[in-house]
Amino acid sequence: MRKRPIVSAAAGALALLLSVPASAAPAGPGAAGIGDPYYPNAGNGGYDVSHYDIRLKYQPTTDELEGTTTILATATQDLTRFNLDFVLDVKEVLVNGRAAAFAGTGEHELVITPARVITKGSPITVVVRYADRPGEVERGGQSAWLRTPDGGVAANEPESAAWWYPSNDHPTDKATFDVSVQVPDGTQVISNGTSTQSSRAGWTRYTYRQSKPQATYLATLAIGRFDIRTDTTPGGLPVITAYSTDLGDNAGAARASVERTGELVDWLSGYFGAYPFGTVGGYVPNVPTGYALETQGQIFYSPAQFARGTNTSVVVHELAHQWYGDSVSVQRWSEIWLNEGFARYSQWLWSEHENEGTAQELADYVYNLYPADHAFWTVKPGDPGADQQFAGAVYDRGAVAVQALRNAVGEDAFFRILKGWPTERRYGNATIRDFQAYAERISGKPLSELMNTWLFTAAKPAAGSAGVVASSPAKSSPAPTATAVVPSEPRSWKKIQETNTVHDHKD
Ligand code: ARG
Ligand code: ZN
């Protein structure tokens, strides 16, 4: 469901230059990457996926995963061969019903050569049969399959799909999903969307359906022993929550947080507009990881986030991503501020609502926390680089940028932008400059200077930049001591920082 190929302008210019209509271009291989500057091999060129049908069988005791993924796509060029992003061991590939040659590259690529050249615009049905132990498959010394004592979990960003299904693994190619997994009776399966189940001869099949466009990294799979609860919000939205039966001391705090999902999604709808998907929920598997992930309509949390007690703030963060990240997704990974800046800002709104510090106080606190020579200010939230994609500055400086916008355009325009943008771009992709143009249109104010200062400059903005962040203590601060120039820590601060314990803080 790709709408705007990243390289379209360049390709168009090239076609013009050569005076050759694109359709007359000679058939060739699809590119091994979709053109993302941070991840050259992410996604693939030459086709556009509309649907994934993923049918698997998993044995938790041995980590054996086997099955078939069927991909429905359309060729965007004449294709002699094309790639999928996949790391597991492939047994057989069919393209439009005919056996196709295939080879792994040792990286993340599965190269497929169909028996016949595929012509531009024609439908492609790819069937990939595979079997492997995903926990043992490493790339760059890492596996994105999180093995647990009772199963495994696929949830990571920017990549985890390749450890359980072949795909065009980039947020610009969204698709609908059917995921159906057979597991031994007594084991449960979590994935995205609505679900049904049936049991036969010792095996239970769980079938999930995501009928709204979904980016590949937002598809999740968890297998293990879970307590699954289903409910509906007062507005009728199905809520599915699930907890590993093995959460130990974290179980109470995890439930007391994630069970607030229905209430919090309604609260966020007041800021962001109608919830974009057909189901909402969250699951907490028994994994040691420190991050959560906004997997679409079924959020992944780690027990670590609840180790210091209830954390509704992280639930707000991941729910905010359903609008900012999942429905409106990045056009390339450098645009990550569109996700994390707003998800973090939603936690500041929650803090304000809970009387634990206003967004302005949190912005002032971040501004004063790091001196000008601190590495924090060397990260440009608008283009942090692949290795700093999830650095603390993308979140915290990113949220200060949102507060700067609020102060610059005023309350009325700000909240119209916050709610209007997810509607304007629903189920699509966007860049930061697209957002800027939208905010300028709604507010009637030029915003280049503000955006450049807060998002695209590798230095601490001057105090009061764009008339925004106060450089003196907030009014609610206690009486300053002789040396105190920093506002006191907002009560929500530590909890907010627990959202993501894998930040690369360069302290
Ligand atoms: N989008 C996730 C969040 O903010 C962050 C995931 C970070 N993942 C990672 N492997 N560093 O909640
Ligand atoms: Zn986030």
Please tell me about this protein's structure.
By secondary structure, this protein is an alpha+beta fold. It has a domain of 178 residues: Neutral Protease, domain 2 (Orthogonal Bundle), CATH 1.10.390. Helix 6 crosses helix 7. The protein has eleven helices and 22 strands. The C terminus is likely disordered. Zinc ion binds next to helix 4 and helix 5.
What topology does this entry show?
Blueprint (H helix, E strand, L loop, with lengths): L7 H11 L9 E2 L17 E13 L4 E12 L3 E7 L4 E6 L2 E2 L1 E4 L4 E5 L9 E10 L12 E4 L2 E4 L20 E10 L3 E3 L3 E7 L2 E12 L6 E4 L1 E7 L5 E7 L6 H8 L2 H12 L7 E5 L14 E2 L11 H12 L5 E2 L6 H17 L5 H11 L22 H18 L1 H14 L4 E2 L1 H12 L4 H8 L37 H5 L10
Parallel strand pairs: 1-4, 2-12, 18-19, 19-20, 21-22
Antiparallel strand pairs: 2-3, 3-9, 4-8, 5-6, 5-9, 7-8, 10-11, 11-16, 12-15, 13-16, 14-15, 17-18
Helix pairs in contact: 3-4, 4-5, 5-7, 6-7, 7-8, 7-10, 8-9
The chain binds arginine and zinc ion.
Any descriptors?
binds arginine, 25% helix, disordered C terminus, alpha+beta, 507 residues, 22 strands, binds zinc ion
